[in-house]
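step: validate -> pass
step: tokenize input -> pass
step: predict -> running
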Amino acid sequence: MVSLKLLKFCMKNLKLQFLILIFLLVSIACSPDDGPDAIPIRDRQEVYIEDLAKINAFLNTHFYNEDEFQNTPAGADFEIKFDTIAGANSGRTPLSQQVVSQTITRDGVDYKLYTLKVREGSGARQPTFADSALVSYEGTLLNGNVFDSSINSIWFDLPSTITGFTAGVTQFKDASAINPNGDGTLSYEGSGIGAVFIPSGLGYFERTQSGIPAYSPIIFTFKLRRAKTTDHDSDGIFSKFEDLNNDKNLRSPNFADDTDRDGRFNYLEIDDDNDGILTVNENADPNGDGNPNDALDTDGDGIPDYLDARTEN
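step: predict -> pass
step: emit ->
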């Protein structure tokens, strides 16, 4: 005769096995895969052609509040506003006649990026792609829907932002004067003011963001308040000089900006050549100006010591 204890044990064991089986079946059914139901990422060149047509259409049919900026009273701090050229505004100058463009190559595509320069900025500092910028901004879709904004200025680490935003902001200079208002806030004089029109390939591309559908061209208006030259890894070399292939991208693929190929980009690496000697101790910048153009090259092979693991051998 089977004991009651043994019967209970078998019942519990069967229940456990049944639950495990159900869990495995559900896990298999719900696991992500690259099968026929997965949505493939679209071709970048194809999307760019579509984005460029949409951006050009916007620029040809819209204007900005230019009059306000031309008649700016002392202390005024206007925001860029866009509107459609129609009706009472039919005589307005289209944005397409006021923007400047630059070509940026990313992922095998040559992107045209348009920037509206309302005010270049009268300060002494102009950030590079590797620096930090204090910015107030508004981000919108081409239909005018706002997906992000900040009236209060925020510090941005430009290497960590989307390429289009960085490439736009770096065409401006910061404010020439900063004045305290007495209430804890600050006023800025001569800030760089502009807008950048970004194809999705220089933005978020297939990655859906809050308020931004996949493959959406976007617009940022902004005011550049301050700029700061950065040395992210404190190795004595400004980060802008750690762009080894000069593509204005500190995170280029295929180890282009990673000398020792250890997965850490040079601008975040304290020992760039992984020779056991910190970059700051390899005379990478003898005159201390942040530029390694005077770096020591002990063996005379054209590779400075801080990038040459063979120097000390």
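step: describe -> The chain has a mean pLDDT of 89.
step: cleanup -> pass
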